[in-house]
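RETRY 2/3 - previous attempt timed out on the joint model. Re-submitting the same 1062-residue input unchanged.
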Amino acid sequence: MDSTNNWILPLITFLPIIGAAILMFIPRERAGAIKAAAIAISIIPLVISIWMWFAYNRSGVQFPHGTQFGINVPWIPSLGVSFAMGADGLSIPLIFLTTLLTTLSLIYSTFIEMRPKEYYWMFLLLETGMLGVFTSLDFVLFFVFWEISLVPMYFLIGIWGGPRREYAAIKFFLYTMVGSMAMLLAILTMYFHGGHTFDMLALAKANPFAVKSIMGSLVFWGLFLGFAIKVPMWPFHTWLPDAHVEAPTAGSVILAGVLLKMGTYGFMRVLLPMMPTQFGQFWMVIAILALIAIIYGAFVAMAQKDMKKLIAYSSVNHMGYVTLGCAAAAATIPGMTEVSRTAALNGAQMQAFSHGLITGALFFLVGVVYERAHTRDLSAFGGLGARVPIYAGMLAFCSFGSLGLPGMTGFIAELSVLTGTYAASPWLAGLALIGIVVTAAYMLWMLQRVLLGPLNPKYEKMPDADAREIISLAPLMALMLFFGIVPNAVFVFFNTASKAILDMLH
Amino acid sequence: MHIGHIILISPAIWMAFAAIVVLLLGVVAAKRPDKGLDHYFPTQYAAPLFTAIGLLLSGAVVWWSLMLAGVTSQAAINGEATSVSATGLFVTSGGHAQLTVDPFAAVISFIALAGTFIVMLISLEHFGEHQAHKAEYYTLLMFAAVAASLAAAASDLIAIYLLIEFLSMVSYILAAYAKTDRRSAEAGLKYFLYGAACSAIMLYGMSLLFGITGGNTSLSAIAAGFTIGGAASSGIGWVAIVFTLVGLGFKLALVPFHFWAPDTYEGAPTPVTAFLSVVSKAAGLAVIVRFLTVVATPGSAGTLAWYWILVVLTTLSMFYGNLVAIWQRNIKRMLAYSSIAQVGYIMVGVLTAMHVFTRSGILMGAPDASVRANISDKLLPWDIQGVLIYLLAYLFMNLGAFAVVIAVGNRLGSDSIDNYAGLMKRSPFYASALAVFLVSLAGIPPTAGFLGKFFIFGGAIKIGILGSPELVVLAAIGVVNSIISAYYYLNVVRLMFFTEGECKPSIVGSAAANVAITISLVLTLGLIVFAKPVSDLTAKAVYTSSPASVTTPAER
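RETRY 2/3 succeeded.
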């Protein structure tokens, strides 16, 4: 590790909350100034994350051997807790995704009139929590940020949400808290078992549970529960449709775009490198849960009449590929090659990244139509294609991205996951294909119900997407296409991360 | 008798002196109510001012006792040269101290005085300018602080009994202080009846202890006598310990000695409730920690019947407190039941301490050698340190919550939870502050409550995986209870932020309440930033403490 401390990660992490503190000094009545200030503040981390993307040394040191932009300052030295942060190929794309989606969400949300100061305040606090999770390399710090990201989302759903927002907010909170508490117990047990350190680098190197044991399994499932609820994996997904349906549009975007990634990030940052034995031991269980999520999520999405709920269940389906990729990468199958493992893990990371772009965009699009029609009932729409062509184009574009059209990010990701999974177990890959087919079906059916057919006379006067909405969506669509055509631009990150993680598996 | 460093109890002496001054001020002021002394130097401001001075003294004593910890000297007692610990006061022959102001006691005493100070600030808000019998009220509060501060150091059965009774007596009067309010009278009476019964049982237990250990009152002497002739494993030994624990369990409102708590908490004037829930419990905890680690852990904790009884009671307290709190419609009652659960969390730390401080040989209060041998880095604290950190966190978050409840309740004239609907509109400061305190009580980072739970459950797991699985189970139960508690704490947050209520008039409390809330808020949020000094100080306080004051831990 670098002997010098690099303060860029603390800076990017705490900038939003410093910005939130500044917001407190702007009078409540000056909503415009509050919004402008918040957006301006959120652009700074975005610029830093773009700079980091290019400044990052692609052939440089990787977790768990070390990190770049690292910082390690003693915090509670007597407990082995330090303020340790670092970034590597696994986290750089996610840091970028977080800052990008936050800025776009804030731009999109400028129409909010209800309690805007608190709204923007919560969003900035949320950004600090999310960035902290992706940059922390100390378990205590990681856990603190993990929980910090929970609280603002609870308020975002509870205050600015839909009719059943209070129920959805507390359900979201309690579900996630069950997971985090299991995680806390597991972290503490790992600490006392693994040489009294919370340093994630040291724990991954030490591999405290190299030998199969009951304690190791308990710790594994404790951490797994924390992450799986966040992903969410079947059967821990039931909070997700409620939270998504009730959350305000930008809240859904962040929830789907970033918060769910925290779960799979945990799989790849914590479970795979620190507990390779247990991951190998239970890989099939996880793969089957992932497979159920893929197929179940797809079929349930197909049955939805509410457009937002449909996208929400499509998240269960899509995140299934991420966990499937992780499981396949750890498969303990003779003949499983390094190439297949790498493909599976690269695909998993790509799917997480791509899902952030695509589903983020789709939730924006649901918001756009909902704010005009005040309904999300798919049967109420029809024929909007001719009425609002720009909107229709964007919706079609993003839906194609979601169903995995070649040339866009989703395709590369799913292909890569399935290639890796096929090597681990052909029938798993085969069954996962069902999910892809059903996804294509429900996405196309949704397009048909919204855009084609006779126009509902109620919506004859519906205005097309305005500048604010286009600005929020265009960057996401451009990136979907760009990384779909030039996947290597982001795969270089994933590849180095996968190699380093897979080193730990042996 | 060797008196020792009397300066170590200077905060208590100062507070007792100041209490009398306050009482006299009240008498003088009562002669000319409008233009007299009270006009220039109001009693209600004198009391917190004096307490602040006591608090500063107490801070100095923490430092002082850290200096003295582990130092022994030779003194002639009754003509015999005896080795006495520098932290012991009123040492009798054999080197047995009646008060031991070791760093552990000094920190708890500091917590008690800090709690009293904040309670005084919120009393100013609660009673306002024209409080009846205000001199008496503040005098009683200050005497209660004296008792709590000394009880933390008590290391002799007589001292323990007297100080616990002193604290109780004052508390009964305080609970019934609003004498025109029937519920306050009921609160005082109920508290008194339960307290008297529990106290009698405790006294009986103590007399048995005195008898079976050869006529000693000092904890260290009893500890030595307790192992002779199988006293510890005899039926009488069992009865003695359990009966003594009844009295201490009452002070803590541990299930099943909690019956007084909800009614007393609801009926008593709210500042008194705040006092009972924090300061009085801190004193009770200090005594129970000292009693358990010095006397009542003669062998490995797992072999002791009362250890298992406490495991069960701790579990019941956590579940009962939280499950009943869910259904409360009055916020004071809710906080009362939640504090029963909070004590349960702290008791997990106390039970862990019984393992760490298991007595080996005559080395009393020293960490058990076999446990320590299993811990690679001796500087790793955790253990019982969690009790102190949790108490510190609990002090700020619970008193902060009470401060908001008083400020809001005073303006609304009701403590019903439903009245908190839409509080965010009426007072963003109070709503945000209460949200932070409740989130902290639920143990969610980055608040102080999280730090406390982290240490307590971390310590339990640490010792638990060395061969006491019940501690790991207790940690898991504590975690499950944190989730249950999040439900009802967040219910208040939900009402304040999510629901529409009356928007006006906006609520503005007095300066005193706002100061109390701001102090609590800053420390609830800031404790984690200062985790290093806090953990270093508490670790030192715990490990340099020698509760029995006979022998200091040799390995330190």
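The beta strands of chain A are 68-76, 81-87. Closing ticket.
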